[in-house]
């Protein structure tokens, strides 16, 4: 995978605390030169509204830096929140990390 791609693993609940940590991780990755950020949600178990807010802020941060943000391996509950809020159209979502890697490689 490209060295300008950074994978960040989300785990447990994506809420105000972990959402803030994700925001710091993404900011650090951008500061280190990452152009593409993949948030892998394979180990995430839940997301609340503050977690959704954090993802939206992360998307804004990445776009302002001229980068690309993608999510993969989202669970049904996260997918449902994204769909109910019409945020699913804002995020690039992949079924798993392999699908993301194939897309980036092409």
UniProtKB/TrEMBL annotation:
Database matches in InterPro entries: Anti-sigma_ant, STAS_dom, STAS_dom_sf
Note the PANTHER family from the entry: ANTI-SIGMA FACTOR ANTAGONIST TM_1081-RELATED, ANTI-SIGMA FACTOR ANTAGONIST TM_1081-RELATED-RELATED
Protein known as = Anti-sigma factor antagonist
Q: Of which family is this protein a member?
A: Belongs to the anti-sigma-factor antagonist family.
Domain spans labelled STAS = 1-106
Q: Which NCBIfam families match?
A: ant_ant_sig
A Pfam family this protein belongs to?
A: STAS
């Amino acid at each position: 995978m490209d060295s300008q791609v950074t994978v960040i693993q989300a785990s447990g609940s994506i809420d105000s605390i972990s959402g803030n940590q994700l925001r710091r991780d993404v900011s650090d990755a951008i500061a280190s030169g990452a152009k593409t950020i993949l948030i892998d949600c394979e180990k995430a178990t839940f997301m609340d509204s503050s977690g959704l807010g954090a993802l939206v802020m992360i998307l804004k941060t990445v776009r302002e830096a001229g980068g690309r943000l993608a999510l993969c391996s989202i669970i049904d509950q996260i997918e449902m929140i994204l769909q109910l809020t019409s945020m699913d159209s804002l995020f690039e979502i992949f079924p798993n990390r392999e699908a993301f890697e194939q897309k980036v490689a092409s």
